[in-house]
Amino acid sequence: MALSTATASPYLSPLLRLRSTYYRCWYEVSRGLKWVRRHYHEHPACTLPESLTTQQRRRIEALQVKYGIHFEDQFHVSTTLENYEYLDLLDQTKEALGWNPDLHKEMVDVGSLNFYYAPALHAFFQPRQLQGIELEGYRIYTNFYSRFDYAQCYIRPFTNTSYTVMDFCDYTGSADGITCFYPFVIPEPLVAWRLPLKVFQPERLFERMTHSLRRNGFVLLMNHGEEEARWACDFAQRSGLQLQGPPLPIPPLFPRAEIPIVSLWNKP
């Protein structure tokens, strides 16, 4: 993928602004409630589903051997497969870029949702410390558990892992490595995820990542398709990060609407 600069500001339609106003009300309610039930848990799948293709099963078995993990022994089938998908994306990135990240470092994940992929990050990076940061960590699901509740389940096996509900733009810590999967760099996906435009601050987000990254540290970005990747790369470059090799499409383990585009950055 050739890197080109995204120069024009995204167009904000009246409909997008109207939807944003509606979601802002729910966003403020969610922040005010800080709903926590705790004790969410998942029954382990124990086995991989029969619906997997031969190719998918072989790839998962290869990851199990390489990283010494069996996510199905701890989590529900959907969480199990999502973690194998993230681990596969990370492993493909490592091979495609000839990247050998240092293990046992202090890491931060930006925009962690309910942090369901924390086990995959542990398997790949073996971090000394891992912190997941999510803006809307108290969003409530239909079963009346929140993202925070789910995150506590997924990080429970790891004593060196935390989940913090906050705006990463206000983060004051530092890290050796930062992962950021599918950040909002254009407004439409943000509103589609029921977030208000008031939290759309991609320039601040990338500036904070650069500021928080220790010298010679890395930022791993994953984006949905080429348009989002162009915007993300532009923000990353303007924040002072240095690109390590061209952004690359990574074939996902399971079908997606758009191929993930990965880019690796460091702080010189």
Report on the architecture of this protein.
- There is one protein chain.
- The chain contains eight helices and eight strands, in the order αααβαβαββααβαβββ.
- With 268 residues, it is of the alpha/beta class.
- The protein has one domain (14-266): Rossmann fold (3-Layer(aba) Sandwich).
- β1, α4 (118-125) and β2 (129-134) form a beta-alpha-beta unit.
- The longest helix is centred in the first third of the chain and has 21 residues, at 77-97.
- The model has no long low-confidence stretch (mean pLDDT 92).
How far apart are the termini?
23 Å
Fourth-level CATH superfamily: Vaccinia Virus protein VP39
Task: Tally the beta strands.
Answer: 8
Note the run of SSEs as H and E.
Answer: HHHEHEHEEHHEHEEE
Q: Given the structure, what is the number of helices?
A: 8
Beta-strand content: 15-25%
User: Would you tell me which CATH topology applies?
Assistant: Rossmann fold
Category from helices, strands and their pairing: alpha/beta
Low-confidence parts, pLDDT < 50 over ≥5 residues? none
Number of domains: 1
Q: Which descriptor suits the 3D outline? A: globular
Radius of gyration of CA atoms, rounded to a whole number: 18 Å
What is the second-level CATH architecture?
3-Layer(aba) Sandwich
Q: CATH class, please?
A: Alpha Beta
Helical content class: 25-40%
What's the mean pLDDT score?
92
Q: Biggest sheet: strands, sense, closure?
A: 8 strands, mixed
